[in-house]
Amino acid sequence: MSRNSHHLTDSDPADRPENPILIVPYMWIGDFVRVHSVIRLLKQRWPSRPIDLVTSSLCAPILDYLPGVRKGIVADLPRRRLPYSQYSALAKRLASEHYGTALIMPRTWKSALAPLLAGIPERTGFTGEFRFFLINDLRLGERRLERMIDCFATLALPKNAVLPEAYPLPRIEVPAAELDDWLSRHGLKTSGRPVVALAPGAVGPGKAWPPEKYAELAGLLADQGADIWVLGGPAEKTIATGIAQAGGASVSDLTGNDLRNAILALAAADLAVTNDSGLMHISAAIGTATVAIFGPTSPRLWAPLNPLSAIIEPPGTFANIKDRGTGGVSVDRVLAAVREHLPHPSTAAATRP
Hints:
Number of domains: 2
CATH class of the largest domain: Alpha Beta
Order of helices and strands: EHEHEHEHEEHHEHEHEHEHEHEHH
CATH topology of the largest domain: Rossmann fold
Low-confidence stretches: 1-11, 345-353
Largest sheet: 6 strands, parallel
Helix content: 25-40%
CATH architecture of the largest domain: 3-Layer(aba) Sandwich
Radius of gyration: 21 Å
CATH superfamily of the largest domain: Glycogen Phosphorylase B
Mean pLDDT: 91
Distance between the termini: 47 Å
């Protein structure tokens, strides 16, 4: 039987170190956190098999804090083009790792190309874009699954397995020594005041709470004795400037290109206020108290598996949830949630898992 036709099963010696698992995830921050539940499921099934992930440069820092991940394979591939030379180069890197299984989560045929070219013997995925010759462990029924985590788990479990009622929760674990060093280098958390992290960014129309409301909230929190850290990428720099104007010297602008800074900031903060975004998932997986503002997306489908301190949605009813913007969420409601759930800074870290 050839290497490309071999199909691994639970009866194979699949937990040998020479049969690592590769996960090809969606390249979104929230999905990288959500996929940690899948990693934990795989570790229950095959405790000894190393697990790697294909990652973008943006998401790569997350993998350093996910228990059970061996390493990331960085590949910044374009979304709308197919540069064959880049896919071929990625395939050579994958082939050198001798993966036994690849879980290919996106439905596109491009996402399955490098695992095929690498000769990974078991390539698990949904049918997607007519990928019958790319995927040799096809799974069906994706469109009947409402939640992304259910789609991910379907690929991680044996074919036709019943999905669990409860999933192992994602965990982001930041070493205390690394966090202390980061705080010292940036001169942060020295005032003894509680720290509220604001994450005003979001991907998708209508998901971001208006910047002027974040600025108003920052001003009120500063008046009430809190320090405010603004987190996000370069796109949030202008919003951070407005928040700093409202909150004055109490505001630290921590936006930038390195996601690691946001991870460490969320690990050190006493509470975070976020939109439905990747940083919401990171904050919840760390165990930081998180107040999340939802608009045109359903918390039932898109909230983290980890518990949130508060979910705030716009008032009223809407014929279509996609028409529900975040502008109807008042600053008073968010402020009340922050005041209710803000732990004392000296005890916040001790209460996290």
